[in-house]
Amino acid sequence: MRLTVPMINKQLHRLGVKDDLVPGDRYFYFRGPVADKWIVSSVEVSKVSDIAALEGWYEAYEAAAKEEFGSRHQRRDQKDRCKETEVTSRERFTFCGI
């Protein structure tokens, strides 16, 4: 059976994923209430069949979510290291040792 984007989305929704797989130019990406907040939501494959099984697409979604979770913690750690300094009464400037 040949995989299609609607088949993959249907399976992702059955597994509780609220986002959809969407085709791009030489890649696919996830769009929706969760993935739209990610920095990277793409999967670099040119055809749906490059990932052979429905489970593989779920694993790709989980990997992207896990990567975003790690990135979010890294950004939070960087933000904690920053010092916010008042420049004028209306402006703020942030110094980061990054």
Taking pLDDT < 50 over at least 5 consecutive residues as the criterion, the unreliable ranges are: 72-98
Cα shape: globular
Radius of gyration of CA atoms, rounded to a whole number: 19 Å
Through-space gap between termini? 50 Å
Give the spatial strand order of the biggest sheet: 1-2-3
Q: How many β-strand stretches?
A: 5
Number of helices: 2
Percent strand equals 15-25%
- Give the integer mean of the pLDDT values: 77
Percent helix among the residues?
A: 25-40%
The main sheet comes to: 3 strands, antiparallel
What is the total domain count? 1
Query: Could you give the order of the helices and strands?
Result: HEEEHEE
Please describe the topology of this protein.
Layout: H1 5-14, E1 20-23, E2 28-31, E3 42-43, H2 54-81, E4 83-86, E5 92-95
Antiparallel strand pairs: 1-2, 2-3, 4-5
What can you tell me about this protein's structure?
By secondary structure, the protein is of the alpha+beta class. The protein is built from two helices and five strands; from the N terminus they run αβββαββ. The protein has helices at residues 5-14, 54-81; strands at 20-23, 28-31, 42-43, 83-86, 92-95. It has a three-stranded antiparallel β-sheet with strand order 1-2-3. Strands 4-5 form a two-stranded antiparallel ribbon. A hairpin with a 5-residue loop joins strand 4 (83-86) and strand 5. The N and C termini lie far apart (50 Å). Mean pLDDT is 77; it is low at 72-98.
